[in-house]
Amino acid sequence: MTQVSIQTGDFDTATELAALENCGGGGVASFTGVVRGDDGLIALELQHYPAMTLAQVERIVEDAMTRWPLLGVRVIHRFGRLEPGDRIVFVGTASRHRTAALESCAFLIDWLKSHAPFWKKEHFSDGEARWVDARAEDEAKARDWLS
Amino acid sequence: MTQVSIQTGDFDTATELAALENCGGGGVASFTGVVRGDDGLIALELQHYPAMTLAQVERIVEDAMTRWPLLGVRVIHRFGRLEPGDRIVFVGTASRHRTAALESCAFLIDWLKSHAPFWKKEHFSDGEARWVDARAEDEAKARDWLS
Amino acid sequence: MAPLNILYFAWVREAIGRDEEQVERPSADMPIADLIAMLAARGGGYAQALGDPDRLRAALDQHFVPLDTPIGTARELAIFPPVTGG
Amino acid sequence: MAPLNILYFAWVREAIGRDEEQVERPSADMPIADLIAMLAARGGGYAQALGDPDRLRAALDQHFVPLDTPIGTARELAIFPPVTGG
Asked: Subunit info (chains A, B) (predicted)?
């Protein structure tokens, strides 16, 4: 069972975890990302390239399935306007082996957080807003992944 | 926020994750262990040393808190009789940094699954029952941890 | 032949003031960078968004490609800043 | 001085048929292994559970210790197979 959703709405981690627990494996690992309200941030605006995002995320999920013996993978990524405390991303993996579940979860969230085709704009309480710059090292890694 | 429970009853992962999401960090990692019904297993009986288990788990949680910048740690371990599909263990960690959350979660579940003072008896559908033997490599690691 | 559809994202979109447009198809051997230079020459938001190609990345038909890649027969060209992840 | 409380776990508990008992306190310098040998000498389930010390581990007052550790003034001795984790 693999499922990828790129959506504006929130999600229910309990529902997602329950589905993964029912995959018959011994372990379910998950990572949930939450928007932080650092430095007066009041909102995060996520833009993405719809025709590309889903295909790329599905490709990295397939990649994870070949690297680890997984029974289930669930990826949810939100876009649009999010506020501090809002869930932004969920990755859940199920496997017979805890190491496979944990490592693949880390692999997927790592890719999503640095290489997925999203652009982020930060809005601050003083009215300022700025697009987040890509970090050079992330760009270098992204080239490796996508080449 | 750190909390450790050693209990017979089931737990609600959604409640636990929500509490961790509210720790103010950017990421929550979790691992949920589920009893597998391999080889005709119909029940797993977990015995533990109550005066020791809680103290040791709390010690390893403190250890994790010094190794990683964590905002919250939640550990739940069940004992008694469990059946295939039952949740047996939950580890959740919250941090500003996804790597810290994921690594500490892996560290804690690794310790729990191999070194926590539990003994497991497997009951099979053919009426057989046997105590699970410790693996030699786990014992060697346990000595490192606990010395 | 069909015109080329161009998509813009993030601050490129904001500066240009539109999220997509169609342009007359350039010759197949024209590198993306040359088309970007032609668009930047329109001035205004285009110059602002596309004047410094070092800050830009591109995708042809939903595949990341270097800016010296010829446009070929692609139907869709996307121009954007480096992705910042989710 | 108070008697020594002994706890048994897993198949040690099953073979002996009890989860704890109190014994007269041995001298402080007696190693755990010697007490285990004395208990095994009771025969029956004790011999079965405690006859092969290589299969046993121990804790004094809730701390894992090697079997050659003197019992000292500990209040609680636990005898069990190697832990198998959760």
From this structure: Heterotetramer of 2 MoaD subunits and 2 MoaE subunits. Also stable as homodimer. The enzyme changes between these two forms during catalysis.
